[in-house]
Design goal:
disordered C terminus; 3 helices; 158 residues; globular; GMP Synthetase, Chain A, domain 3
């Protein structure tokens, strides 16, 4: 699967020599983390996320009957966040559109995009799942970035 993804990504980007794909094996899931040069991230994602969605669909179809495979694009930290790490829970999910909303501990509702998820895909999320995230200014207001699902004694799922 890793080589299939590498071949497709090579065709999309301008700097194929900078492609790095890391495979993380889980019991039921395989995660492929794709890292490309900062200039190529937009080409990999495509307009309105069409390229990465198509790549995820190809991987899903190629892996039918086997372990679930998740594709994640890993970006270098392009800019600094305004606040430190915050906690909250998933409030609403729009899987078909690759975004959702988090309810922060202070009660504020914050937008997040699927590309902000770290180590998981949209299908792995559920309502009220505790998460940690950073907040930054986006083109349309604040948004959650580097969203990490958490389970443990420090988090209360309601």
């Amino acid at each position: 699967m890793k080589e299939l993804v590498r071949t497709i990504v090579r065709a999309l980007v301008d700097s194929p020599e900078e492609i790095d794909i890391r495979e993380i094996e889980g019991s039921n899931t395989r995660i492929l983390e794709i890292k490309v040069s900062q200039q190529d991230v937009g080409k990999l994602l495509g307009k309105k996320g069409r390229n990465i969605t198509a790549l995820r669909n190809i991987v899903t179809a190629a892996g039918k009957g086997k372990r679930h495979c998740v594709i994640e694009v890993v970006e270098e930290k392009p800019f600094e966040s305004q606040w430190r790490i915050s906690k909250g829970k998933i409030r609403r999910l729009f899987e078909g559109r690759d975004y959702g909303f988090i309810e922060a501990e202070n009660g504020r509702t914050i937008f997040f995009h699927a590309s902000s998820l770290q180590g998981v895909g949209m299908r792995s999320l559920s309502l009220h799942l505790p998460v940690e995230f950073e907040i930054e200014d986006g083109p349309k207001g604040i948004r959650a970035v580097r969203v990490v699902p958490k389970i443990g004694k420090d988090f209360q799922s309601q």
